[in-house]
Amino acid sequence: MKAGIIGATGYAGAEITRILSAHSKIKELFLGSSSFKGEDFASIYPNFYKTLNAKLETPELVIEKSDVVFGALPNGLAEPFARACVERGIPFIDMSADFRFDEDGATYEAWYGKPYSEPELHKNSVYGLCELNRERLRASPRIIGNPGCYPTCASLGAWPALAKAIAAAGEKIIIDAASGVTGGGREPQRSFHFPECNDSFSAYKTGSHRHTPEIARNFRVMEGKAREIIFTPHLAPMNRGILSTIYIPLKSGCGLSAVDINCVRPPSNAVKEKEREFRELYAEFYAKERFVRVLPPGLCAATNRVRGSNYCDISIHLDQSGSTLIVLAAIDNMVKGAAGQAVQNMNIVFGFNESEALNYQPALF
Fold first, then answer.
1. In terms of C-beta density within 10 A (0-12 exposed, 13-18 middle, 19 or more buried), how is residue 65 classed?
2. What domains appear along the chain, each with residue ranges and CATH number?
3. Which residue in 280, 288, 331, 353 has a CA-CA distance of 20 to 30 Å to 314?
């Protein structure tokens, strides 16, 4: 097969180039960039020197030569390229937000500031959260909307609790999440300059981050009903990774009775036993998922244990009263949160081994 990447010089584009260059089914790679057309890819990313000989071409030429195309473009630019791929009869896997809301153009316009220019394209696109929509992906859709990084992490972390109906009805679910600076993309921004983000930990876009409606939509699909969420993203002084802390109030009968709030005690044996039950629930739910690892007792999910990999690590905890489930979920935002999941989507669509080119250990350091 021949694969094309439009927007190959961005961080996500470069990461998917790295992954696909080791894919046994991909025999040729065509890299597209309007800004760097004609330049050697290795001149922009020297880590590819003498390992990948590729000149950057126009997006139109990339589409013409490819059997599958990945879009690694800023939001709002994908529709014309998706249309060109549909007309050629090849899949387009988009890593922007442009195809994450299916036909819900109103939500997209409200949060991203522009309407769909070609609404008909969205009627048959599939949201590419692999674990959630695997069967729809196996039907070989022509357009796949790759999920956002924060929604991937939060959704995988909350899904078993929502699907198994252990969350208290009508209660808000709170997600505090921290991401490395690559989540902001390659274009320079003041907040991502070294003096601004090094040795600092800060929240941003509090109450207004664009991934909020995507997380809420996923929770609604997973639970079968709408639920209010509070999502607060943070910028962490690291290159890669997302850690989400998800607070899920337990419905009556699932948790334990709350202790006197004026006399907070350490977790009791009963709380620890209940925590074990929820850990087993999560482990059973994800038992057949190659890239979701439910961690044993004593381990907390951490970004350094998934770095450079397609894994989502999940650890299960309870508060001291046993009334709130605390789920920690960690991913590499550039892999499971972007390029790795896009390749996983391609593998499903074409019937390849789902872990092809993704079956490697996380980097130690």
1. middle
2. 2-124 (3.40.50.720), 150-333 (3.30.360.10)
3. 353
As a whole number of Å, the CA-based R_g of the chain is 21
User: Using an 8 Å Cβ cutoff, are 327 and 157 in contact?
Assistant: yes
pLDDT for residue 317? 97
The tokens describing 364, both together, are: 């130690």
The token pair that represents 126 in the structure block: 């599939």
pLDDT (0 to 100) of residue 140: 93
Which residues are CB-contacts of 247 (< 8 A; sequence separation ≥ 6)?
Answer: 173, 174, 175, 176, 324, 325, 326
For 246, phi and psi rounded to 5 degrees?
Answer: -115, 120
DSSP for 257-294, written as a single string: PPPPTTS--PPPHHHHHHHHHHHHHHHHHTTT-TTEEE
Q: Write out the two tokens for 290.
A: 């190659």
Which alpha helices (DSSP H) does 89-210 contain, by range?
105-112, 130-138, 149-163, 194-197
Name residue, tokens 């589409």: 63
Residues of the chain with pLDDT under 70: 186-188, 191, 255-267
The pair phi, psi for residue 49, each rounded to 5°, is: -60, 125
DSSP structural state of residue 119: G
CA 175, 180, 182, 187 dihedral sign is positive
Interhelix angle 130-138/149-163, rounded to 10 degrees, is: 90
* Residue positions annotated with a catalytic role: 149
Give the containing element (helix H, strand E) for 144: strand 143-145
Angle at 108 between CA 79 and CA 152, to 5 degrees: 90
Task: Count CA within 13 A, CB hemisphere, residue 14.
Answer: 15
Predicted pLDDT at 188: 62
Specify the DSSP class assigned to residue 364: -
User: What's the pLDDT score for residue 134?
Assistant: 98
